Amino acid sequence: MFRDQAIETIDRAALERLQLQRLQDTVRRVAAHVPFYQQKFAELNVTPGDIRSLADLRRLPFTTSADLRANYPTGLLAVPFDDALRLHTSSGTTGKPKALFFSRQDVDNAAELCARSFVMAGVVKQDVFQNMMTYGMFTGALVTHYGAEKVGCLVIPAGPGGSEKQLMLMQDFRTTLIHATPSYALYLATFIEAHGVDPRRDLALRKAFVGAEPYTDETRRKIEEGLGLEVYNCYGLSEMNGPGVAFECAQKHGLHVWEDHFIVEIINPQTGEPVRDGEAGELVMTTLCREAMPLLRYRTRDITSILTTPCPCGRTHRRLNRIAGRSDDMLIVRGVNIYPQQIERVLMAQPGVGRNYQIVLDGLDEMTIKVELAEAGFEAKVEQLMKLQNHLAEKLRAEMLVKPQVQFLPPCSLPVSEGKATRVIDNRKL
Predict the structure, then answer these.
(1) Does residue 156 share a domain with residue 297?
(2) Arithmetic mean of pLDDT, 210-216
(3) pTM of structure
(4) Number of domains the chain contains
(5) 52 and 148 part of one domain
């Protein structure tokens, strides 16, 4: 299924010509209107006329999250303030947030890319889309809301949490699609099961679009089993567009990046140098169509790689591998680099383990994995639980080269986040 087959299957040479034209337009606009980029260009001795090919992208400066915060609130606007239509801010944890402006065209483009993504994943006008993301300064809910409306779906702006009401809405309006964080989707599966509802028999769910947090294929399978639907991985970030920057097609093997709107690079996060296609590194993105706040070579901190083989779906836009984590989410425990997704992969693949967990770091690199048990596992004998505990600790040691303590908890005992889950609590005093 295609929303815009001509652009989705465009010849690579034609796509690269379009990218170059749009890149040159973007560079000219920021050089004329954005003091931050004017200064960076002067420091690098670069002018818009120097960008003659896509290879010249490397002559342009990186933009970082720190740059966005340093230029808060309006320092990166490329249009008059009166021409900005919408403001979103990042979910930064400390200090000033990142202010992210959208023009009217930016808002429409973001919704259109979401609509394109939904159609690629099999969404049709007859679907009922229940949006469980947070409405407000976060882009996740509004952009997908308008994207689903462009397809023609009935949209239920449910927002996060309130699981009893979520279930009632799914039952009463025969919801077929949901959009949620993976942590909330896992919790919802537990909640529905606890209320004696069989989603395959009692609900009309077909698909879940899951994002805003990195998660593993093991978690995807756990959500699919618990909710009786297909899970599609979506990727976005507010600095680019919000959701719909990259999305899985029906093949579910990598996320197609909409390259008519973005140029992607993968770099070594330590050196800033490009890596070979297929090699993991930090994702860097350049906007090609943003009016209000175009960004050049934005360092996302997300770790991924480019898939090099053609996709059977026929789309020519390149694909990203599943996001493995963020370079700034990496934990160093006893001198070993660990990503939380390594732990999740082991836990979610283990029968008897529930759908919620937490990583706690104390003292001098002492790691405890708190994990809920499934109902059946919780009723097991002490000897069986101890055996499972030791088995999990050894599996985790094999995965990350550090052996943690594993602490089992009753089902639904860990806190449930209505937004992005807090998976790591670092109490270390080093």
Answers:
(1) yes
(2) 82
(3) 0.83
(4) 2
(5) yes
